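To illustrate the input format used throughout this study, we show a single complete record. The first block contains the structure-token representation of the backbone; no residue identities are included at this stage. The design step must infer an amino acid for every position from geometry alone.
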């Protein structure tokens, strides 16, 4: 069995705006590929302490390619996990696709320039975000299919302890399809699951 630590990113500017404006905040172009707030950075450092306290050192770190997830990872891992531990950007881990600008990735060269050079971005296939559509939101079934694909991908990895930085809707879908559970993680929340290796 693999141990997978699922972490929701720290508070992003879109999350902060939603506290005042409600769901309409997520439609604002100013939150394109939303970054972390000061609170989000503090939450990320707290996540780092949780990772440091884990019984077993992670062997692999994964992140969504969206800025808020990668920034959370960079903040959390600084001085906590050695640079020798592989860090991989995995597009499967993105937030629900479409409509909301906060869920649209900026050009990859801009995102990459802001983050640790330790990230392996070999699975990021395009400079522009070709998956996000302005007029079409990913359905429940589609994000659940993506969550199943992520579980299969994780199951096939050789590492036994993996840390994943991702998003609320994706974590909800993954827990639903993997454990038949409904759970909403707050910003900076952590949930640990077990994933069985094939065979």
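Output of the design step:
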């Amino acid at each position: 069995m693999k141990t997978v630590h699922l972490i929701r990113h720290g508070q992003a500017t879109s999350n902060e705006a939603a506290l005042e404006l409600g769901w309409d905040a997520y439609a604002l172009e100013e939150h394109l590929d939303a970054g972390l707030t000061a609170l989000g950075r503090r939450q990320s450092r707290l996540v780092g302490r949780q990772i440091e306290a884990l019984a077993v050192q992670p062997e692999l770190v994964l992140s969504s390619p969206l800025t808020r997830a990668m920034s959370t990872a960079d903040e959390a891992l600084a001085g906590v996990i050695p640079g020798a531990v592989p860090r991989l950007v995995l597009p499967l881990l993105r937030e629900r696709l479409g409509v909301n600008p906060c869920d649209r990735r900026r050009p990859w060269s801009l995102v990459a320039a802001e983050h640790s050079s330790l990230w392996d971005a070999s699975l990021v296939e395009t400079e522009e975000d070709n998956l996000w559509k302005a007029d079409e939101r990913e359905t429940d079934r589609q994000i659940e299919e993506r969550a199943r694909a992520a579980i299969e991908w994780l199951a096939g990895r050789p590492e036994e302890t993996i840390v994943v930085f991702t998003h609320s809707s994706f974590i909800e879908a993954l827990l639903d399809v993997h454990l038949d559970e409904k759970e909403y993680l707050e910003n900076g929340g952590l949930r640990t699951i077990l994933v069985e290796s094939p065979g």
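Structural context for interpreting the output: The mean pLDDT is 95. The two ends are 11 Å apart (CA to CA).
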